[in-house]
Amino acid sequence: MVRPLLVIPLLAAALGGIWLARGALQRWRDLRAAATYELAGERWPMLVRAGGAMVCGVCVTALTLLTALGAFGVLSRGRTGADRAQSAVDAAEAGAWPGSVPETAVRQQAAPPTAAASAAASGAASGAALGAATSAASAAPAGASAVASRFDSVGHPGGGELLQSAVLGPDGKPRNVRVWLPPQYAKEANARFPVVVMHAATPGKTADAEVPDVVEGVGAALQTGRIRPFILVAPEAPNGTAHPCELVAAAPAAVADDATLRATIAASFRTLPPGPTSWGALGVEGGAPCAAAAGLARPDLYGAAAAVSGRYDAAALAQTGAEAPAGSSAKLLLAAAKGDAAGLDAARKLQTALKAGPGPAAKAEVRVSDNVQDYTADRERLRLVRQAAQFLAETLTRAS
Fold first, then answer.
1. Which residues contact residue 59 at a Cβ distance below 8 angstroms, ignoring those fewer than 6 apart?
2. Taking a C-beta distance cutoff of 8 angstroms, is the pair 322, 360 a contact?
């Protein structure tokens, strides 16, 4: 890369040298004319100008050489300490544990020891990252992704920070995952937070893009002090079907046990350990059946689930609840606006089917909320999201 700071003195030296050379030549011509008429002339002005022109020539040569070397990248060998530190960070990104770089700049999943070892060859900083990655990878649960995930900031809705990365899905293909950090995440540097997974209903979309009221509603509830803070995680809905949550209601294991997602989030952010006391599920409208299915299928993983304005396959979900791990009990909120007759009817049918179901299904704690009423559908949805967030925050463990 050509360095502008070298080009400026190069031009100045070249112009000065030309001016001095012309002056010396003019003085030399005057001396020759004087000698023709046998007159004596002062040689010092010519010598001074000639010497100055030679100095400028040397400067021009040196600056030209330095500029050319910079253009071909040779000067990159003489990098400063800051450049070397940045190089170490770049190398660590290939397989470093998130703690090896500032969390606000890069949040990424731990890489396996083999990937981290290749990054360690770049220098001492990468070697430190290797040690952290190796110890973290040995503690990661089975099924964790072998591809490091880097989360980049994409906005600040609801007073928090929204980040995005590509994480392998259950089918082994990359999918976008968005994470919303509450304002308290940046203020409480040592605190660990519970997690709520938001399910989307549109293939290829995340829940925050599908229903923006989700993030705004949670942020508003936090600002008013109605709920305790938690982290929202929004994985992209799978492709292959127009209604992913209808498929999930019949096969809930497709979303309930996403080990890769849990391992990535736990490795990249300050979260409470995955489990029923610290992880929950949320779905709004088309995503509600997904949240209900996750909460009913694995209450040992998701301690609470909130489904807002959904339509449910009561028989399929009752069977899902009956097949839940023995000794576990699902906690489920089914919320719909007071004027949403179809939504309330679907919620009550699901509640009845679960009570009449066998095994763990009958033990599920199901609440039906029907008291939300407002002027517009958007305002009602916002209030329903706040209600769901309050239910999840009260059920899950507070940040610690």
1. 9, 13, 17
2. yes
CA distance 229 to 180: 11
Q: Beta strand pairing status for 107-108 and 150-155?
A: antiparallel
Residue 147: strand, helix, or coil: coil
Q: Using alpha carbons, list the distances in angstroms from residue 92 to 108, 253, 264.
A: 11, 35, 17
Question: CA quadruple 94, 95, 99, 103: dihedral positive or negative?
Answer: positive
How large is the average pLDDT for residues 341-348?
A: 94
Extract the tokens encoding 104: 């606000």
- For residue 114, give the nearest of 136, 130, 97 by alpha carbon: 130
| Residue type (1 letter), 179 | V
Partnered with residue 365 across adjacent β-strands are 331
Residues 280, 265: Cα–Cα separation, whole Å: 14
Confirm if 369 and 335 have CB atoms less than 8 A apart.
yes
β pairing state of 174-181 and 161-168: antiparallel
**Quick one: tokens of 47?**
């010598």
Distance of alpha carbon 158 from alpha carbon 219, whole angstroms = 4
**DSSP letter, residue 111:** P
Q: Is 337 exposed, middle or buried, given 0-12, 13-18 or 19+ CB atoms closer than 10 A?
A: buried
| Paired residues of 197 in beta bridges | 233, 281
In angstroms, the Cα distances linking 161 to 93, 181, 215, 308 are 22, 5, 10, 24
54 to 32, 64, 281: CA distances (angstroms) = 21, 15, 78
Q: How far apart are CA 301 and CA 78, in angstroms?
A: 53
Cβ atoms within 10 A of the Cβ of 373, count? 12
Per-residue model confidence as pLDDT tens digits over 351-388 = 999 999 888 888 999 999 999 988 888 888 888 988 99
Helices 341-355, 314-322: axis angle to 10 degrees equals 30
Overall pTM > 0.90: no
Cβ atoms of 313 and 249 within 8 Å: the answer is yes
pLDDT of residue 249: 58
